[in-house]
Amino acid sequence: APVLSARSLVASYGRNPALKGVSLQLGRGEILAVTGPSGSGKSTLLMCLAGVVRPDAGEVFYEERRISMESEAERSRLRRRDFGVLFQFGQLVPELTAIENVALPLLLDGSRRGAAMAAATTWLERFEVVGLARTRPTEMSGGQAQRVAVARAMVTEPQVLFADEPTGALDSLNGEQVMTQMSRVVREAGTSVVLVTHDARVAAYGDREIQLRDGQIDGYDGAVDAAHVV
Ligand code: ADP
Ligand code: ADP
Fold this sequence. Notes:
Blueprint: E1 4-13, E2 16-26, E3 31-35, H1 42-49, E4 57-62, E5 65-66, H2 72-82, E6 83-86, H3 98-108, H4 113-126, H5 142-154, E7 160-164, H6 172-189, E8 192-196, H7 200-203, E9 208-213, E10 216-222
Parallel strand pairs: 3-8, 3-9, 6-7, 7-8
Antiparallel strand pairs: 1-2, 1-4, 4-5, 9-10
Bound molecules: adenosine-5'-diphosphate (ADP) (2 copies).
C-alpha cells in the first residue's frame, strides 16, 4: 500500500485554480520527483499533500487516515510527528547555532535537552557538518546551511519528507552535494520523499517523476507501473 496518496485534488486561490484534479501515490521508501514550470502548481500540491492546506475538493490519504478531512490541530500534530518539511532557504533560526537548530524540533516536541543534542549531533554527522555544530547560519555557506536544514528536517525521523526546491538557492556543485547526501540518508532511513523541483538534474535523484502543467499531471517518467497511476 502507498504511504501517501491523493485523489482528484482541486485547489484555488480565489478564482485562480492552481490544481485541477491531481491524483498520485507515493510508495514506501520512494523518492517521487514533482516537476513542471513555474506556476504549474507544484508548491500548492506539496502543501496539500503535507496537510498544510486543505484542498477545495479531492482527498489526501496518509496511511489509513484521510488527512484532507482532519482539523488543523490534528494535521499540525501529524506534521510535527510524521512529516518533515524542507524549503529552498531561510529556514534556519539565525540566532541559534547549527546544533541548536537541529535539536529544536525535538525540544519543541518535549524531548530532554541532552537527548535532543545527542540526536542533533548524530544527524549533523550524517550530513558531514558536525564541525559546524557551534556555528550560526550566517557564518555558513549556502550549501552548509542547507545540509544543516536537511539534518533538522530528518531529526524527528519523519515517515515522509516534503522538499520544495531544496537546491533552489544553491549553485550546481553545492546542489549536487546536498542531493547526493540527502538521497543516501533518506534511503538508509527508509523515508519516503516528495521532491518538488524545476531542475531535471535534481529530479534525476527520484525513483519516479510526475510532471505538472497548468495544475494537471502532464506526464510520467521513470519506473512507472500501473499501480502508481490512479
Ligand atoms: P509552482 O510551485 O509550480 O510554481 P504554485 O503552486 O506556486 O506553482 O502556483 C500555482 C498557481 O497558483 C500559479 O498560478 C500561482 O500564481 C498561483 N498561486 C500560488 N500561490 C498563490 C497565492 N498565495 N495567492 C494567489 N495565487 C497563488
Ligand atoms: P514557487 O515557484 O517556489 O512556488 P513562487 O515565487 O511561485 O515560488 O511563490 C512564492 C510565494 O508567493 C509563495 O508563498 C506563493 O504562495 C506566493 N504566490 C505565488 N503566486 C502568487 C500570486 N499570483 N499571488 C499571490 N501570491 C502568490
